[in-house]
Amino acid sequence: xxxxxxxxxxxxxxxxxxxxxxxxxxxxxxxxxxxxxxxxxxxxxxxxxxxxxxxxxxxxxxxxxxxxxxxxxxxxxxxxxxxxxxxxxxxxxxxxxxxxxxxxxxxxxxxxxxxxxxxxxxxxxxxxxxxxxxxxxxxxxxxxxxxxxxxxxxxxxxxxxxxxxxxxxxxxxxxxxxxxxxxxxxxxxxxxxxxxxxxxxxxxxxxxxxxxxxxxxxxxxxxxxxxxxxxxxxxxxxxxxxxxxxxxxxxxxxxxxxxxxxxxxxxxxxxxxxxxxxxxxxxxxxxxxxxxxxxxxxxxxxxxxxxxxxxxxxxxxxxxxxxxxxxxxxxxxxxxxxxxxxxxxxxxxxxxxxxxxxxxxxxxx
Length: 365
Hints:
Blueprint: H1 39-46, H2 50-57, H3 65-78, H4 84-89, E1 96-101, H5 106-123, E2 126-131, H6 139-150, E3 154-157, H7 165-173, E4 177-181, E5 192-194, H8 197-210, E6 216-219, H9 226-241, E7 251-252, H10 258-269, E8 277-280, H11 283-296, E9 305-310, H12 314-317, E10 323-326, H13 329-342, E11 349-351, E12 355-357
Parallel strand pairs: 1-2, 1-3, 3-4, 4-5, 5-11, 6-7, 6-8, 8-9, 9-10
Antiparallel strand pairs: 10-12
């Protein structure tokens, strides 16, 4: 299949096989004949041409604010609802984007999906949430087939796909718009949204130090994710800044899931000189540490403080509730979709704020 073409008046690629279709395809009955409202009904009510109505519905430029308001008022009063298929047949876009993810945390996946869906709903787009395995030998074919079958207007890539050079090269070669979430490097040629992962991890570690904890265990994440290294760097930064020697024996590997958190928690608590606090670089792993502590009869936070990262729903339902770094995952999704729908007119990198959320799982030593 030939690569999609770009239309300088629209933010996302056109699908060339739709180009000969007409806006008349939006009609699906007539309000006057007892069916639902049609684009002709909107045209008559607003006193503008069908083509102008189409431009407003497709959120194109070069339509005055007054005209846009008249069309939107007519759409609202008539209850007009153009279908996604009909809008695609009108020769512009498919009005579908996809979110590609490979994250073991269901909470992260659900929150970012909700954010993307929120922006899509407001802009008249449909989101396709596509789980995939970053290490799959068939990944490129899987994504290419999704693009072709759904006639996607663009993609949102989450870690570890943000660092998948072959995938990104394929999207570039096909002239398909994409946005990255939490990329390893922010570049001026790709829109992205992230937080300062390193600074966030350093801030949580400093908070634990401020409570008197000098032996702080750390549970790192899946090495496929660039965020794993950034968070470990932040932990080390905070220790160095106050003169605490880094001890590799206090760092346990994890995979951003509950099971690896349990395993890491047991390993750290069995240390000859165990830590008084454990900072896990995801809430799922921190919940695993809590489970390990409970099974060994270690009181949290009386004998062991536990902190996480993300502030997913899980952080609020475990006992005790987790002190954690709030990463605005829902906002990641909403902003990523916003940036995607603005392309290619504007490439932008958004750095969002993180926040330390203190709950009952951490106490002063």
